[in-house]
Specification:
CATH topology of the largest domain: TIM Barrel
CATH superfamily of the largest domain: Queuine tRNA-ribosyltransferase-like
Structural class: alpha/beta
Radius of gyration: 22 Å
Bound molecules: zinc ion
Strand order of the largest sheet: 6-17-16-15-14-13
Number of strands: 21
CATH architecture of the largest domain: Alpha-Beta Barrel
CATH class of the largest domain: Alpha Beta
Strand content: 15-25%
Largest sheet: 6 strands, parallel
Shape: globular
Helix content: 25-40%
């Protein structure tokens, strides 16, 4: 595989910085990017700046122990992200069934792309001809790409993992292919994502290997895997620097369900000085209490001045607990996948669209929701577009109409993004503890 380093993206002159006020009035410094692809006299400086604005509680209060929750801003090459944030998943270069304009309307600030799938189709030649994923999918805000490691690992019997990397057969055309930390960095450089992820080995809760299938991963197995991920982190970092990728590379903490291994992993990654860190290998089939135990252990031990990303989590309740545990960034397929299955998230609990009780209901999914599906939007000519009843959404579901999952996806993503917006507002106002209680009470009420 060959990547033309002159075509991989913009170089950054670290001298040029812009002083601007963010939306809370705080003065921040932003690096300006210039395209001078043939000029290598300037050192390449990744553009990522994380500013911590508030913590919970803002001042010590009697009777409130507080949490690890924090409010911040993250500046990336394609714009600023307000944290804590949820990132909609756009696996194949599209958030399934949702137009980019709808994503913007609902306040999406950063979305995911999938390195493995985009490598398979349309392939790197097409990606390179568009200068990366942004122009190809017509999304001009930040993008985070995963490393592709999880998909390769998920191929099971079709792949062989070695220290050097993973040999596998393409699920698209059977070609013999090889994924390594270097290859992952080359692909993500071609995609020009604002945040790239190191290649890691996902440590499963239950083994999927033929000899040990279904067995719980032992501490020794988790250690072996975690240590290889650390070596791959270093190789990812070296290749990312060699490619002069102007974006940000995050390291990923592994270690399975073992706090001691998690601690070792994070300490060694922190020593490598990544601009941000993820907690991986959670939500991989483990019981809920195990997931919550790791979520409570790891995020707040990561450097306070860098963004923290909890990969692949989770339910609305997980997001609130994750923020309380000190997480800044989340992604999950749940809002879009559940939407396609007719499960809707609302402030007052989850709702099954297929349920016959909605058949003649004129009310919206969630009377407090301001999304296009529930409330509609005002058009330039003064009329309202959208604002659908449960009866109509139930009807679309019964008839298998395409608009059903599209409207459900808009609502569910809006719900997730709005939940994060409400948490940011509560952190700004110093009322996160009260928010957390109200959230639980509302969700338990039932819809
Ligand atoms: Zn809605």
């Amino acid at each position: 595989m060959c990547v033309d380093k002159h075509a991989i993206g913009k170089q950054v002159d670290p001298v040029d910085r812009l002083q601007i006020k963010d939306n809370t009035g705080k003065l921040i410094s932003i690096a300006m990017t210039h395209a001078h692809p043939h000029d290598h006299s300037h050192p390449t400086q990744p553009v990522v700046q994380f500013d911590l604005l508030r913590t919970d509680p803002p001042v010590i209060e009697a009777g409130y122990a507080g949490s690890h929750a924090r409010r911040g801003t993250l500046v990336l090459n394609h714009g600023m992200v307000q944290t804590p944030i949820f990132m909609p998943v756009g696996t194949y270069g599209t958030v399934k069934g949702v137009m980019p304009s709808s994503l913007e309307d609902m306040g999406a600030q950063i979305i995911l792309g999938n390195t493995f799938h985009l490598w398979m189709r349309p392939g790197l030649d097409v990606m390179q001809s568009f200068g990366g994923l942004h122009d190809f999918e017509r999304w001009n805000k930040p993008i985070l790409t995963d490393s592709g490691g999880f998909q390769v690992w998920s191929l099971g019997a079709m792949r062989k993992i070695t220290e050097q990397g993973v040999h596998f057969s393409s699920p698209v055309n059977g070609d013999k292919l090889f994924m390594s930390p270097e290859v992952s960095m080359q692909i993500q450089t071609t995609l020009n994502s604002d945040i790239a992820m190191q290649l890691d080995e996902c440590t499963p809760y239950l083994s999927i290997e033929p000899k040990t299938k279904g067995q719980i991963t032992t501490e020794q197995e988790a250690r072996t895997s975690m240590e290889m991920s650390l070596r791959w982190a270093k190789r990812s970092q070296d290749e990312f620097a060699r490619l002069e990728n102007p974006n940000a590379l995050f390291g990923i903490v592994q270690g399975g369900m073992f706090e001691g291994l998690r601690q070792e992993s994070l300490e060694q990654l922190v020593a490598m000085d990544f601009p941000g860190y993820a907690v991986g290998g959670v939500s991989v089939g483990e019981p809920k209490d195990e997931m919550l135990r790791i979520m409570a252990h790891t995020p707040h031990r990561l450097p306070w001045h860098k963004p923290r990303y909890l990969m692949g989590v989770g339910t609305p309740e997980d997001l609130v607990e994750g923020v309380a545990a000190g997480v800044d960034m989340f992604d999950c397929v749940m809002p879009t996948r559940n939407a396609r299955n007719g499960t809707l998230f609302t402030r007052f609990g989850d709702l099954k669209m297929r349920n016959a009780r909605h058949k003649a209901d004129h009310g919206p999914l969630d009377s407090t929701c301001t999304c296009y599906t529930c409330k509609g939007s005002l058009r330039a000519n003064g009329t309202i577009s959208g604002g659908f009843s449960r009866a109509y959404l139930h009807h679309l579901d019964r008839c298998g109409e395409m608009l059903g999952p599209m409207l459900a996806s808009i609502h569910n993503l809006h719900y997730y993004l709005n939940l994060m917006r409400e948490m940011r507002a509560a952190l700004d106002a110093g009322t996160f503890g009260a928010f957390r209680q109200q959230f639980k009470a509302d969700r338990a009420r039932g819809v």
